C-alpha cells in the first residue's frame, strides 16, 4: 500500500516538474534563472556553495516540519500530509528538488536549523522579534493566527482576566503563554498538541490554549471529532501572530539575491498572487480569511510592484514582540552557553538571563521564594507554639479541640489544604497574589505547625511539671527542626494556588522559551541550597540552645 | 449538580488506588536502592562518604520541584507518541517520591546496622513499622501529582470541582475528600502504632 502511494507521489512529482518548466509567471521566470545560475556552480570544486546552491546541486531539500499538528503537518503510516506539507512539496517541486521531511517540535526547530540538520523550517512557527534575531523569516508570511482558549461550553470565560487562578494547559515554547501567565493562571506545559487535546478529552485539562487553527481543526471546527466539538468551544482568542518559514541568517535575502531566502520570498509572493495558498488551505479545512486578504494585497500594485519586485513594507505584518529587549548581560550569557556547548557538549541555555522580560520574572520569583521560605519558617514556629498551648491548655475541652484540629491537619495532604483554603478565601475576597501567598503560608504553616505542636506537647509530657516553654523547645528541638525543614520543602507547593514563586516564574519562562531542563534544575538546586541553609542554621541555633 | 454521587465515589476509589500504587512503587524503589546504600555507607571509606552526600542531597530535595524536573527531562527522553508517554507524569512522581524513600530507608538501615551489625530478625522487626509509616507518608504525598496531571484522587477531585457551578459545592466536595484522607491516614497511623507494639513484644 505504501509503495503504491510512493509510486503515485513520484509520478505526481514528475508531472508537476514538467509543469514548472511550463510556468510563465514573471516571478517564476526569475526563480528559474536563479536555479540555472545555481546549477552552473554545481561542478565547480573551488566555489564556496551557499545552501541554495547545495540544495539545487544535491537535489535534496531538508525541511523541518510538524508531524502532529492537525491539518498543517501530520505524519501517519509513514506519509506526511497537511497544509504546510503541501506548501513544502510545492516549493521543492518548483525548485526541482526532492523534499526530505525532518520532524521538528517547537522546542527544537530553531536549534535544528542552526545546526544545519534542516535547511528550512516550515513548522507552524510564529514570527517573533526574538526569533528574528537568530533566524530569517521569509516574508510575506504564509499564514497568521491568534492563540485560542478552549473550554467546555458551560464554562464562563470571556477574556484573559477570567483565567486568573485557573489551571490551563498550554504548549511548550509558545510566546503567547506570556500573556496567559501574566493573567495569573497556572500553566501546565505540553510538548505535543495531540497529547494536550487527549488530556482535554480525558479531563486532565479543563481549559486549553493553543494556536487557533490547531484547536479549530482538532477540537472546535467542523472537521473535529464530534465528541469534542459538541462539548467544547472556543471562548476567545488573542495575540494574532504571523507565521513564517525560516532559514539561517546566512541564507537570508539581505545576504544576497541568489540566496535561499530570496528565492523563497519570490515563491511565496507567487503562491499568494496565484491563490495557491488559499486553495491548499481550503483542501485542509483551514480558515482562509488571512490568505484571501493576502491574495488581494499581493495582487495590488501598491503592495507589490511586479516590474522591480519591490515590496511595500507596510503590506507586511510586523513580527510579534512578546519578549522585549535583551538584558545587558545577554551577550555574556550567550558566550557562556556557546563555551559550555563547545567544551562539554552541554546544551544548556539560560533564557531567564537573556531577555529583560524573563529576567524580571526570574528575579521576582527568586525574591518571592526567599521571602516565602522565611515567612513559612516563622509561621510554622508560631503555629507550633500555638498548637502546643492548645494541647496543654488548662481546660479539657480546649485540649480536645486542639487534639481534633491537629489530627485533621497532620493527616491532610497539603495540596488539598491549599485548595480548600483557596476556595474558602476566594469566595469572600477577589483573588490576587498577596491573597494566594497568605493562604499558602497559613496552610503550609498549619500542616507543619500542627506536627510541631504535637511534638512539643509530647516532649512536655516527658519533662517535669512546670518546665518553661524555652526548656521544652530546647528538648524537643530535633522534632521542631524536622517540621521547619518539611515546611521549607513544602513551600514550593504553594505555586499550585498561584503564589508567584521561583517555580511559577520558571514554569512561565520555560512555557515561552521552550527550555526546561536547565530551568527546572535551577529551581531544584535553589531549594536544595535553601533546605541545606535551614539545616545548617537550625543546627547552629540548636547547638547554642541545647540543654546542658 | 450534587457535589458527590455514586459515580464520583467509585471513580474516586479507583483514583485513590493510583495514589496507593504510586506510594508502593516509590517505597519499593526506596528499599531496592536505600538498603544497599545503607550497607555501603556503614562499611565506611570514600564511597561511603559519597553515599552520605547523595543521601543528604536526596533528603534535601523538595518532592514538588524534583517532580517537575523529572517530568521535564522525561518528556524529552520518552517519545511523546509512545504508550509510555501517558505514564510519564506518574513515573516523574514515583522518581520524585523515591528521593524521600531512598533517604529514609538508607537512614533507617544505617541506624539499625550500627546497632545490630547486620540485617537480623530484630532489625527487620524494627524496620517494618518505619517502612509502613514511610509508605503512609508517601501515599499522602502522592497528591502533589495533581500539579502535573497524574490521574490520582486529588486530580479527580479538582476536575470534578471544575464541573460544579457554585463555590459552596466546590468547598463541600473538597471538605468531604479531605475528611476521607483524614480518616484513612488516622486509621493507618493507629494501625502502625498497634503493629509496632506487637512487633516490639515479639522481638522482646
Architecture overview:
The complex is a heterodimer of chains A (about 550) and B (about 200). Chain A has about 550 residues and is α/β, with parallel strands linked by helices. Helices cover about 55% and strands about 15% of the residues of chain A. Chain A has helices at about 1-20, 25-40, 50-60, 85-95, 110-115, 130, 175-180, 195-200, 210-220, 225-230, 260-275, 275-285, 290-300, 330-345, 350-355, 355-390, 395-410, 415-425, 435-460, 470-475, 475-490, 500-515, 515-545; strands at about 60-65, 70, 75, 80, 100-105, 120, 135, 145-150, 165-170, 185-190, 205-210, 230-245, 245-250, 305, 310. In chain A, the strands form six sheets. A three-stranded parallel sheet of chain A has the order 5-1-6. The longest helix of chain A is centred in the C-terminal third of the chain and has 36 residues, at about 355-390. The N and C termini of chain A lie far apart (about 85 Å). The model of chain A is unreliable at about 5-25 (pLDDT under 50). The mean pLDDT of chain B is about 85.
List the helices and strands and how they pair.
The complex is a heterodimer of chains A (548) and B (204).
Chain A: H1 2-22, H2 26-39, H3 51-58, E1 60-65, E2 68-69, E3 73-76, E4 79-81, H4 83-95, E5 98-103, H5 109-114, E6 120-122, H6 129-132, E7 135-137, E8 143-152, E9 167-171, H7 177-182, E10 186-190, H8 193-202, E11 207-211, H9 212-220, H10 226-229, E12 232-243, E13 246-248, H11 260-274, H12 276-283, H13 289-298, E14 304-305, E15 310-311, H14 330-344, H15 351-354, H16 356-391, H17 396-410, H18 414-426, H19 433-461, H20 469-475, H21 477-490, H22 502-513, H23 517-545
Parallel strand pairs in A: 1-5, 1-6, 9-10
Antiparallel strand pairs in A: 2-3, 3-4, 7-13, 8-11, 8-12, 14-15
Chain B: H1 6-43, H2 46-60, H3 63-77, H4 88-116, H5 121-141, H6 153-163, H7 167-202
Amino acid at each position: 500500500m505504501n509503495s503504491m502511494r510512493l509510486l503515485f507521489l513520484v509520478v505526481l512529482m514528475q508531472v508537476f516538474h514538467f509543469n514548472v518548466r511550463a510556468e510563465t509567471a514573471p516571478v517564476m521566470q526569475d526563480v528559474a534563472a536563479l536555479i540555472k545560475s545555481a546549477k552552473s556552480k554545481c561542478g565547480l570544486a573551488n566555489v564556496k556553495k551557499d545552501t541554495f546552491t547545495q540544495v539545487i546541486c544535491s537535489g535534496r531539500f531538508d525541511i523541518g516540519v510538524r508531524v502532529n499538528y492537525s491539518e498543517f503537518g501530520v505524519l501517519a503510516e509513514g506519509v506526511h500530509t497537511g497544509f504546510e506539507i503541501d506548501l513544502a512539496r510545492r516549493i521543492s517541486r518548483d525548485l526541482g528538488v526532492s523534499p526530505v521531511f525532518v520532524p521538528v517540535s517547537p522546542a527544537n526547530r530553531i536549534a535544528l536549523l542552526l545546526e544545519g540538520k534542516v535547511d528550512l523550517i516550515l513548522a507552524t512557527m510564529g514570527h517573533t522579534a526574538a526569533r528574528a534575531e537568530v533566524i530569517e523569516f521569509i516574508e510575506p508570511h504564509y499564514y497568521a493566527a491568534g492563540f485560542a482558549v478552549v473550554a467546555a461550553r458551560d464554562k464562563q470565560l470571556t477574556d484573559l482576566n477570567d483565567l486568573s487562578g485557573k489551571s490551563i494547559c498550554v504548549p511548550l515554547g509558545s510566546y503567547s503563554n506570556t500573556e496567559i501567565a501574566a493573567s495569573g493562571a497556572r500553566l501546565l506545559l505540553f510538548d505535543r498538541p495531540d497529547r494536550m487535546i487527549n488530556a482535554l478529552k480525558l479531563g486532565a485539562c479543563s481549559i486549553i490554549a493553543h494556536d487557533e487553527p490547531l484547536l479549530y481543526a482538532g477540537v472546535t471546527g467542523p472537521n473535529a471529532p464530534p465528541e469534542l466539538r459538541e462539548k467544547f468551544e472556543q471562548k476567545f482568542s488573542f495575540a494574532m501572530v504571523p507565521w513564517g518559514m525560516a532559514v539561517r541568517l546566512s541564507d537570508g535575502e539581505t545576504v544576497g539575491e541568489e540566496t535561499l531566502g530570496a528565492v523563497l520570498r519570490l515563491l511565496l509572493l507567487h503562491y499568494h498572487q496565484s491563490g495557491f495558498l488559499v486553495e491548499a488551505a481550503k483542501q485542509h479545512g483551514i480558515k482562509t480569511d488571512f490568505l484571501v486578504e493576502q491574495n488581494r494585497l499581493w495582487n495590488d500594485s501598491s503592495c507589490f510592484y511586479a516590474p522591480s519586485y519591490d515590496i511595500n513594507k507596510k503590506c507586511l505584518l510586523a513580527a510579534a514582540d512578546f519578549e522585549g529587549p535583551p538584558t545587558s548581560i545577554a551577550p555574556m550569557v550567550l558566550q557562556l552557553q556557546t563555551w559550555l556547548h563547545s567544551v562539554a557538549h552541554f546544551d544548556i541555555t539560560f533564557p531567564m538571563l537573556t531577555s529583560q522580560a524573563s529576567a524580571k520574572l526570574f528575579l521576582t520569583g527568586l525574591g518571592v521564594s526567599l521571602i516565602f521560605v522565611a515567612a513559612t519558617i516563622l509561621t510554622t514556629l508560631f503555629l507550633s507554639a500555638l498548637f502546643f498551648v492548645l494541647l496543654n491548655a488548662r481546660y479539657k475541652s480546649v485540649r480536645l479541640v486542639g487534639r481534633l484540629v491537629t489530627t485533621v491537619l497532620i493527616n491532610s495532604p497539603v495540596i488539598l489544604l491549599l485548595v480548600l483554603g483557596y476556595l474558602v478565601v476566594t469566595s469572600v475576597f477577589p483573588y490576587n497574589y498577596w491573597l494566594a501567598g497568605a493562604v499558602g503560608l497559613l496552610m503550609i504553616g498549619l500542616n507543619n505547625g500542627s506536627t510541631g505542636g504535637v511534638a512539643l506537647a509530647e516532649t512536655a509530657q516527658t519533662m517535669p511539671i512546670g518546665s518553661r516553654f524555652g526548656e521544652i523547645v530546647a528538648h524537643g528541638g530535633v522534632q521542631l527542626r524536622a517540621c521547619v525543614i518539611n515546611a521549607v520543602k513544602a513551600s514550593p507547593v504553594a505555586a499550585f494556588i498561584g503564589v508567584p514563586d521561583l517555580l511559577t516564574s520558571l514554569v512561565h519562562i520555560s512555557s515561552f522559551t521552550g527550555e526546561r531542563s536547565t530551568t527546572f534544575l535551577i529551581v531544584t538546586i535553589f531549594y536544595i541550597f535553601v533546605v541545606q541553609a535551614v539545616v545548617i542554621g537550625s543546627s547552629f541555633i540548636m547547638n547554642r540552645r541545647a540543654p546542658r | 449538580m450534587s457535589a458527590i454521587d455514586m459515580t464520583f465515589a467509585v471513580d474516586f476509589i479507583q483514583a485513590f488506588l493510583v495514589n496507593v500504587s504510586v506510594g508502593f512503587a516509590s517505597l519499593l524503589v526506596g528499599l531496592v536502592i536505600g538498603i544497599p546504600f545503607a550497607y555501603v555507607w556503614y562499611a565506611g571509606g570514600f564511597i561511603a562518604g559519597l553515599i552520605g552526600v547523595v543521601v543528604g542531597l536526596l533528603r534535601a530535595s523538595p518532592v514538588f520541584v524534583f517532580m517537575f524536573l523529572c517530568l521535564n527531562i522525561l518528556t524529552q527522553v520518552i517519545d511523546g507518541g509512545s504508550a509510555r508517554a501517558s505514564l510519564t507524569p506518574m513515573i516523574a512522581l514515583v522518581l520524585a517520591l523515591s528521593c524521600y524513600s531512598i533517604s529514609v530507608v538508607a537512614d533507617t538501615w544505617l541506624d539499625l546496622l550500627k546497632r545490630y551489625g547486620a540485617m537480623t530478625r530484630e532489625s527487620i522487626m524494627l524496620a517494618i513499622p518505619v517502612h509502613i509509616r514511610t509508605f503512609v507518608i508517601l501515599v499522602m504525598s502522592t497528591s502533589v501529582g495533581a500539579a502535573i496531571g497524574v490521574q490520582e484522587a486529588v486530580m479527580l477531585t479538582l476536575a470534578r470541582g471544575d464541573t460544579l457551578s457554585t463555590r459552596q459545592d466546590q468547598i463541600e466536595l473538597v471538605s468531604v475528600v479531605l475528611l476521607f484522607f483524614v480518616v484513612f491516614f488516622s486509621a493507618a497511623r493507629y494501625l502502625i502504632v498497634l503493629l509496632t507494639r506487637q512487633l516490639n513484644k515479639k522481638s522482646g
